[in-house]
Every structure is written in structure tokens, then in C-alpha cells.
Amino acid sequence: MIDRTQIGKAREPVSIRLEASMIRLFAQAIGETNEVYSSDEAARAAGLQGVPMPPTFLFCLGSMADPNAVAHMQSIGVRLDRILHGEQEVRIERPIFAGERLTFTNRLVDIHDKSEGKLTFILQETSVDDESGQHVGALVSTFVVRN
Amino acid sequence: MSHNDDAQDVISLALTIAPITRTQLALYCGASGDHNPIHVDPDAARAAGLPDVIAHGMLSMAFLGRMLTDAAGPTGVRRIAVRFGAMTNVGDAVSCTGQITGAAGGEATVALRAAVGDRTALTGSATIIQPGA
């Protein structure tokens, strides 16, 4: 059973620095060939402040920032072999570049059942702030657990 | 990308991805931090009831991201949201498409789809800095 008392609770904020090397590897993995993602020089020559963050990478960075996320899911009763990614939203308030240190605060917003209890939907919202405390992005994730 | 000069343009975006390889899935595991073995280890995939490894849903979302940044620039995506549908497999060639459905204040809304042949993998929407704005 998934622990519903966890609804509304925010996890401890976690921080991580976005590194150019992370972006370079991610660009390679997704087949992105634009040089700005693998070279600070190329990025600046293109008029950018630095190597830019590919938009969906904000989700990956949030996962990397929180090594206990999986253990936390298990601790509230989610079976990892039954979980699917249902929906994902990434919001970016301003351009984000390599070198920035971002803080992710994850909140479990809702847990509810559908299909006569065969499926449980878990909704999480993650707020992303920069080093000065400015809100720079958000992640809204829906996971589906098959019961 | 095709467009005409009418202010009420519907602009189409498209990006076709080369067939997904096991190497790509291994790289994506490392790059994304999602090391779930069902993406690289056929034994783990079979233990989970799958015939073979499957691609990360987020990989197809990243392909849509590439289509959007190709149109709006590396810092031009304000929002992207998807629903994950059918799974994507090794060898699948993902076809990304986008239709600009509205524009205001220098931003455009795009309806998104990632498909493998007739099979829809992802649907969603995005807000981007309007191309050419």
C-alpha cells in the first residue's frame, strides 16, 4: 500500500551544479550535433552566455541531484518494478547554462487510484531555484503504479 | 520547417531520428542518470516481462526537445509537457512532429507528437519563443 500521509510533504531541497561535461554527454546520447552543447567556445561564438542546457535535461539534473529519490519511493510503498512514467512537464523561466548551481525542492502533490484500484497515480511537483534564490524552473511528474 | 507569410500561419516542425541503438540506450542511461537496467540489460528486461530492452520515455521527450530547439534556438524552449504512450524499442525510428497552434507576445504554442510508424509514443505541447520573432 502506498502511504497517503506523505501527500503534501516537501522533501529536503537538493542542489547540484550543472556541468558542461554533463551537457556534452547528454547531447551525444540524444544525437544532438549542435556544437554549442559540446564547446563553450562555440556557445559564446553563437552569442550564448555559455553551454546551454537542453530543455529536458532539467529533469535529469533533478534526478541526479536527489540520489535518495528511489529509496524514498520505496519507503512510501511504491514497487519500482511496477512504476511507469505517465506524464512529464518541464518549465524553464529563463535560459540556464553550464556552471550554474540549481536547487530542486520536490513535493508529493497527490496520490490517487484509477481503474478500480488497478492503477495508482502519483503526482510530484519540483520547484527549481538558482543560487540567488530566484525561481528558474519547475518539473511536474506523473508516475503510474500498476497494482 | 515550412511557412507562408500569413500572420495566421500554421507552421509545421518535423525531425526524424535515426533508429535507436543499444549503444544509444547505454549512453542515455549514463547521461540522464537513469540507470534502470530494463534499458540496457536484456535479462533485466525479460525479468520485467518485456521481450527485450526498451528505450526511456524521456529519450523520446529529448528528441522532441531537439526539434523545438532546432526551431526556437538553444534557449528558446519555455515549456514542454508530454504524456507517455506506447513504449519505444531498439531499432525504432522516432518521428517527431510539431504544429504551431497559436502565437502571442513573441511566444508560440506547439502541439507535439513522437511516433514510430503508426504507433504514437508521446503526445504533448510546448511553448517556445516564436521562430522568426
How are the SSEs ordered, and which strands pair?
The complex is a heterodimer of chains A (147) and B (133).
Chain A (H helix, E strand, L loop, with lengths): L13 E4 L2 H11 L9 H6 L11 H9 L3 H7 L7 E10 L8 E14 L4 E11 L5 E12 L1
Antiparallel strand pairs in A: 1-3, 2-5, 3-4, 4-5
Chain B lengths: L11 E5 L5 H11 L9 H6 L9 H16 L4 E8 L10 E10 L2 E10 L2 E11 L4
Write a structural description.
The complex is a heterodimer of chains A (147) and B (133). Chain A has 147 residues and is an alpha+beta fold. Chain A is built from four helices and five strands; from the N terminus they run E-H-H-H-H-E-E-E-E. Chain A has a five-stranded antiparallel sheet with strand order 1-3-4-5-2, covered by helices on one side. In chain A, a hairpin with a 5-residue loop joins strand 4 (119-129) and strand 5 (135-146). The longest helix of chain A has 11 residues, at 20-30. The relative contact order of chain A is 0.22. The model of chain A has no long low-confidence stretch (mean pLDDT 94). Chain B contains three helices and five strands, in the order E-H-H-H-E-E-E-E. Chain B is of the alpha+beta class and 133 residues long. The two termini of chain B are 15 Å apart. The model of chain B is unreliable at 3-8 (pLDDT under 50). Strand 2 (83-92) of chain A pairs antiparallel with strand 2 of chain B.
Keywords:
heterodimer; A: 147 residues; alpha+beta; five-stranded antiparallel β-sheet; 22% helix; elongated; B: 133 residues; 33% strand; disordered N terminus
Radius of gyration of chain A: 17 Å
Number of strands of chain A: 5
Low-confidence stretches of chain A: none
**What percent of residues of chain B are in strands?**
25-35%
Sketch the topology of chain B as an H/E string, one letter per element.
Answer: EHHHEEEE
* Overall form of chain A: elongated
Shape of chain B from CA axes?
Answer: elongated
Radius of gyration of chain B in whole Å, from Cα? 16 Å
Structural class of chain A: alpha+beta
| Helix content range of chain A | 10-25%
| Strands side by side in the biggest sheet of chain A | 1-3-4-5-2
The overall pLDDT average of chain A reads: 94
Q: Going across the biggest sheet of chain B, name each strand in turn.
A: 1-3-4-5-2
Distance between the termini of chain A: 9 Å
